[in-house]
Amino acid sequence: xxxxxxxxxxxxxHSVRRTAFCRTGIGTSAFMGRDSIxxxxxxxxxxxxxxxxxxxxxxxxxxxxxxxxxxxxxxWHRFQRQMALLSAWASLSPLIELNFDDGTSxxxxxxxxxxxxxxxxxxxIVTDWIGRPGFLxxxxxxxxxGFGHTLGxxxxxxxxxxxxxxxxxxxxxxxxxxxxEDLTGSxxxxxxxxxxxxxxxxxxxxxxxxxxxxxxxxxxxNNSFIPRRALKTVxxxxxxTDKKFEQILLGEAKxxxxxxxxxxxxxxxxDFYIRLRNRVGSxxxxx
Length: 287
Ligand SMILES: [Zn+2]
Known about the structure:
By secondary structure, the chain is of the alpha/beta class. It has two domains: 14-254, TIM Barrel (Alpha-Beta Barrel); 259-287, no CATH class. It has nine helices and nine strands. The strands form two sheets. The chain has a seven-stranded parallel sheet with strand order 6-5-4-1-9-8-7. 37% of the residues are buried. Zinc ion (ZN) binds at residues 101-102, 154, 158, 194.
């Protein structure tokens, strides 16, 4: 693709081709394996790669309805431009993984575009939402797999996991994993916590349930892979400008707002903070 007047540079670091942390090009090879491989292999691969860090970009709804963009929505034309920038900056940016949360129906179109651009992504699915109006159906999920993408669990009900006791928490993690595995016929090893509500207990139980990667909504780059710890992410918002996106790709993004809000959350307590956030409005939304 040539867009924004920039040449297309598409690089797949060979040593990480089969890891989850890679710009991908199908080229003469197939897409990366759908099965996640062991986190340690990923970590070693990342160390061998040219860049010392990797970034997980997390998207939500990609929409044509630019008049009704929510905080986490991104207009389609801007998403296309971001993918053009991603291609253009590939040789300079950190290793990138693309994530899409919630399994909304627009993600089929996203999956098709990424396939054409030779990118592979992970789509995190809330299994109770499959087939509901506005969400992907089972055939559409299979189509995403056909495009070479991977499915991960985003729980059964999009529950706030930190509020659950162990038994219902395990049910959210186990049942969603099994359903997606039945659907895909292959292991589902990636998990992303709804709303980023994670603590040490939830993270450890997720790993105990057989997931290899647990993604939080803590904003930041991953400088290394630490076994059984949650990965950080760089969420993309409706307010993410092209300039900001380039900074993200170059590993130069700052996450000051996030750290300030985390401090506020710690001082006010999570419940009070969430109530306050909901009253203040969407501008202050924090995972
Ligand atoms: Zn979600």
